[in-house]
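Why run this: before we spend reagent on co-expression, it is cheaper to look at a predicted model of the complex and decide which construct boundaries make sense. The entries below are exactly what would go into the expression plan.
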Amino acid sequence: MSEVLKLGKKAKEAAIKLATVSAEVKNSALNTMADALVANADKIIDANKKDLEEGKRRKISKALMDRLFLNKARIEDMAQDLREVAFLKDPVGEIVKGWRLPNELEILQARVPLGVIGLIYEARPNVTVDAAGLCIKSGNVVILRGGSVAINSNLALTKTIADAAIRAGLPENCIQSIASTDRAATTELMKMRSHVDVLIPRGGASLIQSVIENSTIPVIETGVGNCHVYLDRGADLDMAKKIVINAKCQRPGVCNAAETLLIHKSLVEKGFLPEILNELKGKNVEIFGCEVTCSIGSDILKATEEDWKTEYLDFKMAVKVVQSLDEAIAHIQKYGTKHSEAIITEDYSAAKKFTEEVDAAAVYVNASTRFTDGGQYGFGAEIGISTQKLHARGPMGLEALTTTKYIIHGSGQIRS
Amino acid sequence: MSEVLKLGKKAKEAAIKLATVSAEVKNSALNTMADALVANADKIIDANKKDLEEGKRRKISKALMDRLFLNKARIEDMAQDLREVAFLKDPVGEIVKGWRLPNELEILQARVPLGVIGLIYEARPNVTVDAAGLCIKSGNVVILRGGSVAINSNLALTKTIADAAIRAGLPENCIQSIASTDRAATTELMKMRSHVDVLIPRGGASLIQSVIENSTIPVIETGVGNCHVYLDRGADLDMAKKIVINAKCQRPGVCNAAETLLIHKSLVEKGFLPEILNELKGKNVEIFGCEVTCSIGSDILKATEEDWKTEYLDFKMAVKVVQSLDEAIAHIQKYGTKHSEAIITEDYSAAKKFTEEVDAAAVYVNASTRFTDGGQYGFGAEIGISTQKLHARGPMGLEALTTTKYIIHGSGQIRS
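The model came back. Tokens follow.
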């Protein structure tokens, strides 16, 4: 039996037990896990050093090395996150709906854990702890499959928190990491329908694409964001500037950052185009413009078809002048990834049309796209931002890690 | 460009328009579609005759021929179903939740259509009309891919209702059937992520399995049901008999019919086993029993491992004597398909334990499994019964054909 299949079988057994563990025990486990991380920081840092050496050997980028790096402060942060998850409301057991049928059957729709969640992610050790915490809180068993360069860190973290969870009274095997770094193990995980209920890929576009193409297990797709800000004819120009700069520059490397700016021609006629471009250039944003935009300055590169499609995740922005609100919406339908889209306008009908017609997880009027986030929405925790339409759409809190079952109380009813 | 890709592109365009069509226009379209079916009954029956001939040539079973067969009465029934769907509440536009953040952003979670739904089904012309009606009502464009032997019926039905929908004011291409009966067309449909939002297979286990294995589009899996009735130590025996007979015999060919009977040993000690077996035999149910069950009569076949796994969909039932409630639950966890499971008991704690620990879409106390049905649950319509955990679980009404989007109203908020 392969390692992955063994893990799967153990996970399925654990899931049956974990599903009915009380919130009290789960919260106590989260706190014990947090304490164990702090207590074992030295061991974890030793393991992490091996990964950092391997990272150097593989010449991975500085940004990736930084994501891989652990020290005491970062381990304290992970522990703190677990303690905060312990404070959140347990989603399991909620009665979502309940009603009585004419034949006196009583139907309750109760929230229950998904069961076994497979998590496939990149070389970010913090995701190991973060995901395990959210899964445990929502009553789910997790099988973790992190990036190979982080394998020593992940195994050390997993052992630490899994042992702590057992000490606190959780069933064995609730938190498991795949030890093999062989790609075949990932493929096997993605096909193990009988032991895994849901797969969640967390990472860049190519990781997500690979999971979508290969998985036979239902997938919750998280977020590529090619987000737009549209400055309507009726925009408050001061507000427009602030929101564009915030959406593009406040943290350009994340999925809810804006990538393309659409501007109604009437604002161009008012002379607003050089103004906003200067603001962007002042923040070192490189501009890829349409023909009209390019006419403003010789330092503006001509946008290609590829630019309208690209999630730069960088200080780069595509800029296009549109003839109408309809053209703006059509552009978003064509190039957007259905993540977050914003209109800046004081025109009531334009705002209404935009929110109704734009097909995206989050549609904003007069606010930055950067708000699409579980924490910002008040969910307390975030598993990711779903850009698919099934199950959950937009920022996903603990509820997205649950399903429901119908419980029906009868008194001998049969169907006629 | 292939036929399927052409259909996909047209569907995507239509979906943008259909999403904002009012309930009034959609309902009027459903009624116009119903009238058109009745008016074109002769043409549809002519097309159906070709399919019936092809069915004979392929020597398909009597049951399949019956499902394929159309006459005026059946066409009237389809029309009536459409009229009833017109009466249901439109799920689109509902505000599921709404709240205000400390920074005064207002968040609304609004129900919206999924977009383009691909429906893959067997040679049942009535599904063509039924599915199209439910999709239109919920604001979704549909691409239909029915079984090849029903191709003439499906194309005639599709043309009739699609033309009627346009006459009633719906956008073009909201309802399309794939004309090619080539298997490659089905495969292409299952991979067309950029033009299809969700795939729904409706049919037997092998059809569903093929979609799950090949689709890169999110799938709503509908139901294989290996359902159990467990007669607990505390069962009311009269009620137990009625429910077992109903769950097995009232309509054995459907997914919510019971396939295995589990009986607590204490009932056997009371002499109940021959009693219930005689009831079943009186209804011509063939029994596949465990060792104890087999000792009751020589006409009982020994159940194999395969029997515990099988969805008979027939007058056949596996019967097993269990030592405890725990053994019953473990058997269900091992062999069940997470569809519908029932316990018959007057024991409060046993009922509570069973409903908490059994992982299934619907868990019954003292009622027949046959109630797992959108119509019975009061949903008015049913797309199918989901046995997956993502998005929808159990009977799916119109809501299961929708997703949500967040609409956020601001006044210049930026993220700090």
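The CA atoms of residues 33 and 161 of chain B lie 5 Å apart. Chain B has two domains: 3-222+393-409, 227-371. Bring this page to Monday's planning discussion.
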